[in-house]
Amino acid sequence: MGALRNLFRAVGHEIQAHPVATLTVALILLFAAFGGAAQITSVTGDQAFTGSNPTLEKFNEAFDRGSIAVLVRGEVTDPATIRAMARFDDRMSEVENVAYVSSPADQVRAEYGRIPDSEAKIERVLGQPNMAFVNVVFEPGLTQPEERPIYTEALKAEEWARFPAGVGVIITGSAAFSAQLSELISQSTNQLLGLAVGLMIVALFFLFRGVRLRLLPIVAVFVGVLYTFGAIGYAGIPNSTLTSSVFPILIGLGIDYSVQFHERYEEELESAPPRQALPQALAGIGPPVFVAMLAAALGFGATWISTRGTPAFVWFAQTSIFGVLLTFLAGLIVLLPVLTLYARIRRRGFGEIGLRELTDGGRDEGAVDAESVDDGAADTEADNDATAPSEVAAAERTGETDATDSDRVGLLGRTLGRTSRTLAANPGVVLLLALVLMGAGFQAGQQLDTMADTEEFIPQDLPAYVDLQQFRSVTGGGTAVQYDVIVLGSDLRHPAVLRWMVEFEQVAVGMPLVQGVDSPATLVKAHNGGEIPQTEAGVERVLNRVPPRERAQYYNDGYAHITVVAAQDMTTGETLSFISNVHEAIEFSNPPPGVQPELTGTAAISPPSIVDQIERRNVTTGLGVLFVFGLLLAYYRRLVKAIAPLVPMLFVIGWQNLYMAALGISVSPLGASLGAMSVGIGAEYTIIVMERYYEEKKRAGVGKLDAVETAATRVGKAITVSGMTTVFGFSALTLSPFPILADFGYLTVGVIFLTLVAALATLPPTLIVLDTAEDRVNAALGRSTADAEPTP
């Protein structure tokens, strides 16, 4: 601990000695961040939840042809409509990465060599439909960024084709959906960022009255967020639905770090010049805030480790880790040098001025108590700066040493102190009630609904989604109900393999939720009078008669492709059952030796991945607890101090399920990571209360209950204001157009509030119980508590 304190003191010396150079470094990093931010891409839909999979990669390269579907409704057989389709077809056929375009205009031109002027002639070819489809098929293996320009070109081509008035045209498909969703994610990220900044400004303006440059922390945090954009761009982390939620969270967390630095520096300036105040402030507040930041990073790290197979969760965790590190850094290299320069200018302008002049006539009682963010100076170092010199002087003048008698803490502080003393005096009742509520929460957690369908994550009024739903209703489901089986093997055109495909089809269609199967066997039978040839040469003759474009849908690059059609509008549970049924059908049909069929495609891989993340939420939470415990144990080297801050967090993990049940919040994959996050984020509040408790307990004649009351009085108000400020940042998520993010916003706001309650209501009795138990153990071992303290 002493080494960490000395490190931050040294950093403080360097910043106060070279504030302009420090700001120059910050500016250079900012320009570098813009370069990284320009490299950010977006990944949407099921692809964001589908990890690296060799079979999927083979399928994508060989068969996964994205497409744009154009639904034309109205007077389809009008020659003007067919000519518009032909113009659209011809233009899109020339677009890069478009394999081919099929449309009714092709059929008419194939029959007559041109588009006739007679509607009757067109009806002889097409019949009398009231709708038609134009299908733009891409080259296989395209990424989402490569598909999006094709959608843009389709919009231009539709306008250029000049469809007649009264004819409705809807352009939909994977590329359309991806392009609109990507644009909405970018807009949502910017809007949420702006909302969070605005809410932070309001919070700082009203909650931190009497502090000079009180809006400066938001500037530092915003710079840290820009650093984060640059970092994820350079690291190749794409923006996704989940990743966009990180930035309001970072503003909520980062503002806390900067405010802690700001408040402690202000406190030290009351009795020391800037060159001494900054090193003293960082030596005091730097270590505990640094540990709190690492705890938050480890909470996100638990999410990263437990969800390594699902990209969206990994990107969320990686972005969050970058964010907490860089917003902490921005607090050091942006906020502190500006404060140093400002303090120097004021001193030059007003000379050697005293406390009242430095603080513009004294602090407003509404300002956050800088003592609140006590530095963890519970250690017995000679340079212990935890108690503000101004307070010591005041105590010496008045003869008072009880912090609860200070007017500076205000009514809220005194109320919190008395309440905490009462709760700590009855630890059995308080902790039993907390345990009962926690148990009830874990029980309620088993009954919560889940949000696992990726289509539930997005705004239901997104135009591309509305168009897709219309397309599905017209086509009876469209491609949304098709799943893919890729067949690997050395001789996939052998009659025995084709006969197995027939057997697989018979088994599969007898399974629930399976509506049909289309396989190479289906293709061969369709071109051979409904029979499978007896010889491999016969199969080859049949396939040679099939147009290459059609054949490529079934055989390509040495692989075979089977399509399994599912029931429409399946729930997440039904989708999982369908996937299981297809696996059973593959096994039961007994593929020939050397033939390896595998169900693949993002639609088949992402739902189990998302559900697995939700079901593993307790594992993720457990990892978060373990990581933070290891950090605290390494920092304090004392078991009680490593355990005590985590006990209230365990209560919160259970309580949050009751909160979710009361508000009807479903468990989403993003919410599943909240347990580990809340442990990392909430540890800051409990560490601050615990640090002040041990500091107060060392004073002569101070008992455990006195120490609890003083700790809650002096830091309770501050962490309450700090927590509410964090809530302001998180609350921006509640206004997100994405349902998954809005629910997560309500959840995080509630969890931060519960964390504050746990820190002030359950930590004091926990400290009494653990501290008393430790005293008894030490007494039995014949040593004092002071002897049990590690040497700094």
Task: Give an overview in words.
The protein is an alpha+beta fold and 792 residues long. The protein folds into three domains: 2-40 and 181-449 and 612-788, Multidrug efflux transporter AcrB transmembrane domain (Multidrug efflux transporter AcrB transmembrane fold, Up-down Bundle), CATH 1.20.1640; 58-180, Alpha-Beta Plaits (2-Layer Sandwich); 490-594, no CATH class. Helices cover 65% and strands 7% of the residues. The protein has helices at residues 2-17, 19-37, 54-62, 79-93, 104-112, 119-126, 144-161, 174-207, 216-235, 246-269, 274-306, 311-350, 355-358, 389-398, 410-424, 427-445, 463-475, 495-509, 520-526, 536-545, 548-551, 572-588, 602-615, 617-636, 639-643, 646-663, 674-697, 704-731, 739-761, 763-780, 785-788; strands at residues 67-73, 98-102, 131-138, 168-173, 482-488, 514-518, 555-556, 559-566, 596-600. The strands form two sheets. Strands 5, 6, 7, 8 and 9 form a five-stranded antiparallel sheet that branches. A four-stranded antiparallel sheet has the order 2-3-1-4. Helix 1 (2-17) packs across helix 11 and helix 4 (79-93) crosses helix 5 (104-112). The chain is elongated. Mean pLDDT is 80; it is low at 350-406.
